[in-house]
Each structure stands twice: as C-alpha cells, then as structure tokens.
Amino acid sequence: MQITVLGAGVIGLTSAYYLSRAGHRVTVIDRHAEVASETSFGNGGQLSYSYVAPLAGPGVLSKLPVWLSRRDSPVRFKPSASPEQWRWCIEFALACTKNRSNLTTRRLLSLSFLSRTLMHELVREESTLDFDFSHSGKLVLHRDAHAMQSAVELLEFQRTLGCEQQALTSDECVSLEPALESVRAEIAGGIYTPSEDTADCHRFCKGLESLLRARGIRFEMNTSIDALRRTTRGRVEIVSGDIALDADQIVVAMGTGAQRLLKPLGLRLPIYPLKGYSLTYQLGPRAIAPKLSVTDFTRKVVYARFGDRLRVAGMADLDGYSLEPDPARVAALRAETASLFPFAATDATAASEWTGLRPATPRGAPIIGPTPYRNLWLNVGHGALGFTLATGSAALLVSWLNDVPDPALTENFRFSL
Ligand SMILES: Cc1cc2nc3c(=O)[nH]c(=O)nc-3n(C[C@H](O)[C@H](O)[C@H](O)COP(=O)(O)OP(=O)(O)OC[C@H]3O[C@@H](n4cnc5c(N)ncnc54)[C@H](O)[C@@H]3O)c2cc1C
C-alpha cells in the first residue's frame, strides 16, 4: 500500500518507520525544512513508561485557584474567549475522577509497556541510531510527607499493573543520586523506577529520518497541508497549495496542527495545546549534575542527562497556540534548576531556551486508529507522553492498517465521534 504520513515529528516518523517495516511504501510530508521542528524538538527526554497517570485526576480541581492566580505555579490557565479552550476545560474537569484517572492510567500503562519493549528492540536492531539513549532509571522526589504518602499509594496500585518501583527515604535518594546532596533536608522521600530510560528526542527523529531515507522513504519537506478534502466513496485527499494529492491511505500525525484540518471533515478532535518550556545546559568538566533522570514532583520539573548536556523541562500553560515564551516562566525554570542542582551549571544563565506545545487531550490518552473516512487514520494527541508512547502508538496504527488490530489494546485509543 502507498501510505502518506502527515507530520514529521516523533509520532509521524515512528509511524513511517513501522509502516515501512511492514512493507508499505511511505511518504512523509511536513511544513518545515527539518524534521522534529515543533514539539518533538526540545522535550524533556523522558521515556517514562511507568509515569503515565493523566494530569486529570482527583484533587486537581482544588488546585485551580492557585493555577489561576500564581505566575510561578507549574500549571497555569489563562482563560480566553475561545470555545475550543472552554470545551477542552469542561471535558478535562469531567475526567478528574478517581475511576476515570485509574482507567486511563491502566490503558496508558499497557501502551507504554509495549512502547518500552519496542524501543529496546529498536535500539538493539538499529545500531546506527545515536540519540543519547540511556537506561538511566528515574527518581521522583517528593518534598512533603502527604504527597509522598499518595505516591506510595499510587506505587501500590501500579504494582498490581506490573510496575516495579521502590519507595526511598531522603538519605536513600541522595545515596542513589549524589547530585541531590544540597537539598537532602528538603526531600520527604522518593519513588525510584529502575526501568525508565532517557534520550534526546530530536536526535532520535534525525536518526530515524536518515535511516528512513536510506530505505527509500520519500520526504516532502517545506510542504504545508492546507486542507483535507472529501472525495468520492468516503475517501479524502490532501490539499497543498493548488495541488491535490491522492494516497491509498493517509495517516494524520500533525500534533497540535491536526484538529484544524479535521474539523471541516466533521471530525472534532479534543486536542488543545499545553505550552511547556525547556532549558538545555552545557555541562562543564566540574559540573555536579544528576546522572539519573530526576523529577521534582512538587514543581513538576523533569531533569535528564544527555551526555555532557542537562535538559530541564516543565510548566504547562493552557493559553492558546502562541509559542512566545513568558520570561517569568523561563526565569522560574532557571530558579528551580539552580535550587535543586546548584553546581550543575557554572553560568546559570547559559542555557538554550525552548517552548513547545503538547498536543493534549482532556483525558490524557492519545487517539490512534481509523476514522469514518476509508483512507484516513489518526495517530495524534500524545500530550506530555509523545516520545514515551511513540513506538507503541506506531505499532497499534500498523496493526489497524494491516487489518489485524488487537482489540484488547486498540479499542482503548480509537476515535469516536
Ligand atoms: C516542555 C515539554 C516537555 C516534554 N517532555 C516530554 C518527555 O519528557 N517525554 C515524552 O514522552 N514527551 C514529552 N513531551 C511531549 C512530546 O514532546 C510530544 O507529545 C511529542 O513531541 C508530540 O509529537 P508529534 O509528532 O505528535 O507532534 P510534533 O512534534 O509537533 O510534530 C507534528 C508535525 O506536524 C507538522 N504539521 C502540523 N501541521 C501541519 C500542516 N498543516 N502541514 C504540514 N505539516 C504540519 C509540524 O510541522 C510538525 O513537524 C514534552 C513536551 C513539551 C512541550
């Protein structure tokens, strides 16, 4: 089959990889000159297979007043007149129940475990890929006893679903990650997950692109998709400028660009951008920076080591499609880094800054699979977990396209009108 993948972020590229392995002829189209130029460029680098619980959870709504009022809170909501934003918020609020959150966690864990298996297989089989991949393990720090207690309860729940995690004291956290020494007294405890990985998503995408080009996959870069248009017999075609492109099958993997193109087809995707920030520090020879992947749970900031670089990522701002950085948010992220790892960077201001838009669904689960159009497929809405879930999502998509979907997994993520 000839399959056109729209979007060359981590989701489009992994889709292209697994489609081509399944024997399909694949073309990838993107509006940028380079792959991974949008959200897949500067993310937190966490392959966080055991930390997939959605943002929408019990207790979240009570935090809303803080999110609305404080400029340095990890999550910020700027109300706008956009009906799209309000619809998303209402659906998010409805998803903030224990039952829904547990159900989504259970479903995402099955996808993330599949993703882990496939990512490890890919790293083993594609030896030319070089993307700072590390079996780093992950330590999630808690700064208050109450949050630590809730984390232990989540650990017990996740243990029943196959996660192997350990609850650690403050001293045990510092023994495991000596770069935390200066905040020993502030740590209430931590949850350690040895099976988590880290890697540079942008380098992963560039590596996949080279590999795919070498295998004959066509890339049409600098090509903006203006519309998807209904044709005959329940099919759609791709419109770019004056040109209408036909394809046996079309896979939409356009991140936050997907919903605008699908709306005129009568398909409403519940995706809204959640803006985030990252900083990348070049580490000097005397830097004391973490080797483990560390998450500061209270501040919702993640730290990942890529060789001699430290990637710091965080913040979730619900304030539309602008990529414009808010200097106060960047300053808050710098201050967090300086307080947790004061000896990581000799010059605390020397870090490259980046903002990106997470393609977030209210329930926190991606949408993967068929649409009511015979040649149109979706692989979208991965929110804060696109890198983590990319390989498994692509495999699910291929199982749909090859007409062998595993109902136990695929039905959980399919689009419904
Ligand atoms: C601050 C931050 C930290 C994060 N940290 C992590 C993390 O640690 N681990 C993790 O798993 N995930 C993380 N994420 C989430 C992850 O980065 C995303 O889920 C993932 O990158 C989404 O990939 P994508 O391919 O769907 O979207 P994108 O990477 O945005 O790719 C979509 C592509 O579609 C193209 N496109 C869109 N519209 C059009 C159009 N009309 N015509 C042509 N091309 C179009 C775009 O140019 C783009 O290249 C983070 C995100 C942010 C913002």
TrEMBL record:
Pfam families: DAO (PF01266). GO terms for molecular function: oxidoreductase activity. Its EC number is 1.4.99.-. It comes from the Bacteria. Keywords: Oxidoreductase. It is an enzyme of class 1 (oxidoreductase). InterPro entries: FAD-dep_OxRdtase, FAD/NAD-bd_sf. NCBIfam families: PRK00711.1 (NF001933). Belongs to the DadA oxidoreductase family. This is D-amino-acid dehydrogenase.
